[in-house]
Write a structure and sequence with these properties.
- Helix content is about 30%, strand content about 20%.
- The protein is an alpha/beta fold.
- The chain has 2 domains: about 240 residues, Alkaline Phosphatase, subunit A (3-Layer(aba) Sandwich), CATH 3.40.720; about 110 residues, Gyrase A, domain 2 (2-Layer Sandwich), CATH 3.30.1360.
- Strands 6-5-7-1-8-18 form a 6-stranded mixed β-sheet, with helices on both faces. A 4-stranded antiparallel β-sheet has the order 11-12-14-13.
- Helix 8 runs parallel beside helix 10 and helix 9 packs antiparallel against helix 10.
- The radius of gyration is 20 Å and the shape is globular.
- The model has no long low-confidence stretch (mean pLDDT about 95).
């Protein structure tokens, strides 16, 4: 049986949506009080389990978690493209359309990367099917700013998921938090702000979340956050959360499936990522039979289901008809500490990744929601 999301649980899709509601004086699922200025800080790759395990490196973050332990569900897939789209639109992947790291474009008949495909000309401008909350904020007469690295300023993905926000480029972690502090200190300013930090995710992919590099990045973030929190004026609220957690995959658990394996029979295209495969079947192939072959092969290492089974289990939330063919005919979601590769992929940079994510395990889906300033009261 496939796992299902917990009914009624707070979700990543609620975080920015409820922050906007708080500025507008409206109530939401998170019960935030009314504020004049609200900010969401997204720490890419910070799982709730990882934060607990490294609490000694993060006095400010861990202190907030100890004071009010709050864990939310990021949703599936636990990958940045899908999760950030959920955060900035308030919708789930089945509605906004970003259902994986890479997916099949049914009209073009090719697999597209949903982080880089915008810049490669592979994705149409309307690929993201839901307007952003930043656009809603500006339409309501509020300001909306997004603070991130200069390298992301002009990317197509940024233009899509941050559409409507004024982008503020800040190179380092410290620069970004200082830019946010300056915005929140301006009492004439009313609106929502968003800060993105990729450093934890980058360190995790390279060396694992249990590495010194990951802990070092966490310490830098926590120190910058501590200074920000100390400077917050009244009626300014800050939420800190993440897009996904991470599982460290040792080299022996990165499994290369031979090109001539029966598991690839009837598969015309492969999408997703190494802990959540989207298998797109040939038109004449039997998806149920394909799922059965994979289920027999991977045993208890992964959850395997057809598209229909995954949708029925609520993996992607409500799914619009236009998004349906973007989802694989068969999905393979790792439930143990493994990742699946083609022979070609295992020999590339992806085959060297230690920290990985994408699937349903608690380490990947459970992320912290930490409240500061007016939101902590």
């Amino acid at each position: 049986m496939l796992p299902s999301p917990a009914h009624g649980a707070a979700r990543l899709a609620d975080v920015l949506a409820d922050s906007l509601r708080a500025v507008r004086g409206e109530s939401g699922a998170l019960g935030l009080p009314g504020v004049d200025r609200a900010a969401v800080i997204l720490l890419d790759g910070l799982g709730a389990d990882s934060l607990r395990a490294r609490a000694g490196h993060a006095r400010t973050l861990a202190g907030a978690m100890a004071g009010r332990t709050e864990v939310i569900a990021t949703g599936l897939p636990t990958t940045t493209a899908a999760a950030l789209a959920s955060l900035t639109t308030g919708a789930l992947p089945g509605e906004h359309g970003l259902v994986g790291y890479s997916v099949l474009d049914p009209l073009a008949g090719r697999v597209v990367n949903q982080l880089r495909g915008w810049d490669d000309g592979e994705l149409p401008p309307d690929w993201l099917r839901v307007p952003t909350l930043f656009a809603a904020a500006t339409a309501a007469g509020l300001d909306a700013i997004a603070i991130g690295s200069d390298r992301y300023r002009d990317s197509g993905f940024t233009r899509a998921v941050l559409g409507g926000a004024r982008y503020v480029a800040a190179r380092t972690i410290e620069d970004r938090f200082e830019a946010l502090a300056a915005a929140l200190a301006d009492r004439s300013w009313r609106g929502i702000a968003y800060v993105y930090a990729a450093e934890l995710d980058m360190a995790g992919h390279d060396a694992g979340w249990a590495s010194e590099a990951w802990s070092g990045a966490l310490e830098r973030i926590d120190a910058a956050l501590g200074r920000l929190v100390a400077s917050l004026p009244p009626r300014a609220g800050v939420l800190v959360t993440a897009d996904h957690g991470m599982v460290d995959i040792p080299e022996y658990a990165r499994i290369a499936i031979p090109d001539d394996s029966p598991l690839w029979e009837g598969v015309r295209a492969l999408g997703g990522e190494h802990r959540l495969l989207h298998l797109y079947a040939e038109p004449t192939a039997d998806a149920v039979g394909l799922a059965a072959r994979w289920r027999d092969a991977v045993g208890h290492e992964a959850w395997v289901g057809t598209r229909e089974e995954a949708i029925a289990a609520g993996w992607f939330g409500p799914v619009s008809p236009a998004v349906l063919p973007r989802i694989g005919d068969v999905l393979v979601a790792a439930r143990k500490g493994v990742a699946y590769y083609t022979e070609e992929a295992i020999s590339g940079s992806a085959g060297r990744m230690v920290g990985q994510h994408g699937s349903w395990t608690p380490a990947e889906t459970r992320v912290p929601l930490l409240r500061f300033g007016a939101f902590a009261r």
